[in-house]
Amino acid sequence: MRRHSAIDDTAAWDALPGMVLLLDAQGSALHVNAGFADFARREPRRLLGRARQELLDADSRRELLRRFEQRRDFSMALFVSGSAAGESAAWVEWSARWDARRRQWLCLLHDASAAKRSEAEARAQAGLFRLLADNVPVLIAYYRASDFKCQFANKAYARTFGTDERTIVGKTFAEVIGDDAAMQIQSRVELVLEHQQAAAYERQLPQRDGGLRYIEVNLLPHVGEHGGTVGCFVLITDITKHRLAERAVRESEERLAKFMQASAEGIVFHKDGFITDANPPLCGLIGYSLDELRGRSVLEFIAPDQVTRVAAVMHAGQETAYESAVIHKSGRRVAVEFIVRTMVRNDERIRMTIVRDIRDRRPRRRASTTCPTTTR
């Protein structure tokens, strides 16, 4: 009498959900159910023996045979060709149970193609995000709100604080930027975590060469679906160039101011013909205070017979030196020499004119020897 086998009830096997295979000890198929046949798009009888190996690529086939030799239960992902969906390739999760008494393998397969594709797409998107994050001119990091440990950092952020984008993950904010710096910005962190408000601040980072790096930090709250604070985004911009440029401008302004104050000759600045600044000698020369001069047209202070020439020089933007005359507040005419230059000040093109008093160059009119006639 023949012993009853698991393959006798074909209808029961075919009723099982999913894909089921029964293999001998060497991995030859004794039975496959309809689910696997549909997936492979082959008739069940054509998949018996070792025919189902045709579905596997070489690497998957070698790995599967290695697992069979170990005679232990296993689970693994295999690359399979010829899926039911008509695709050229698919992934299956292969779970095998070894029956030592019967010396057979009972295998359950699950089509994992969609999951693998989703996983691949997620990896591709993560890779693209990492590529983008590592190449933007901004330092980026994300800290979890519960313990304020770093969950993500781009390459520039990690390197700025002496680590790399993998090692930094899991470190607390204080461990990354230092305890002193963390204490200084504690109030801003609380603003983000407790009040869910963005915070911004500037600070200086000492460099190994003894210099300073200036950064602008923006902390942005990550609010979850239920309204709680999930984490904090950190965006940092290096503003060192801007701060150094501002310092250079300030130092230049200071030097210019000292020069203007120390100069014995009058100096006036104007933009589009309107006075923006003047030094004390210029104010003394024409009798007006600086407040009285600012905003007024330079032509208001030129002798009427000289206005046309001065206006022509201004319009042409000439850098030249020439003699002219100005009118003192008292109304008297003052002979001067203009030395005109164009310069950039506070990112604006302006005109600087040195006004030199040349009255001592002009011969004085000889006094008349005739006494004026007087009448009673």
N-to-C series of helices and strands = HEEHHEEEHEEHHHHEEEHEEHHHEEE
Largest sheet: 5 strands, antiparallel
How much helix is in the residues?
25-40%
**Counting H and I runs of at least 4 residues, what is the number of helices?**
12
CATH homologous superfamily name of the largest domain?
PAS domain
State the end-to-end CA separation: 170 Å
Total discrete domains: 3
The CATH architecture name of the largest domain reads: 2-Layer Sandwich
Radius of gyration over alpha carbons?
Answer: 44 Å
Counting helices, strands and paired strands, the structural category is alpha+beta
Mean pLDDT: 85
Assign an overall shape. rod-shaped
Please count the beta strands (DSSP E, at least 2 residues each).
15
CATH topology of the largest domain: Beta-Lactamase
Low-confidence regions: 1-7, 83-87, 365-376
Could you describe the 3D structure shown?
- The chain is α+β, with helices and mostly antiparallel strands.
- The chain has 3 domains: 10-116, PAS domain (Beta-Lactamase); 136-238, Beta-Lactamase (2-Layer Sandwich); 260-361, 2-Layer Sandwich (Beta-Lactamase).
- The protein is built from 12 helices and 15 strands.
- It has helices spanning 10-15, 34-40, 58-70, 113-135, 155-160, 173-177, 179-184, 186-195, 240-262, 280-286, 290-293, 307-316, and strands spanning 19-24, 29-32, 74-80, 90-99, 104-111, 139-144, 150-153, 199-206, 212-223, 229-238, 266-271, 274-278, 321-327, 333-345, 348-357.
- The strands form 3 sheets. It has a 5-stranded antiparallel beta sheet with strand order 2-1-5-4-3, with helices on both faces. Strands 7-6-10-9-8 form a 5-stranded antiparallel beta sheet, with helices on both faces.
- A hairpin with a 5-residue loop joins β6 (139-144) and β7.
- The protein starts with 9 loop residues before the first helix and ends in a 19-residue tail after the last strand.
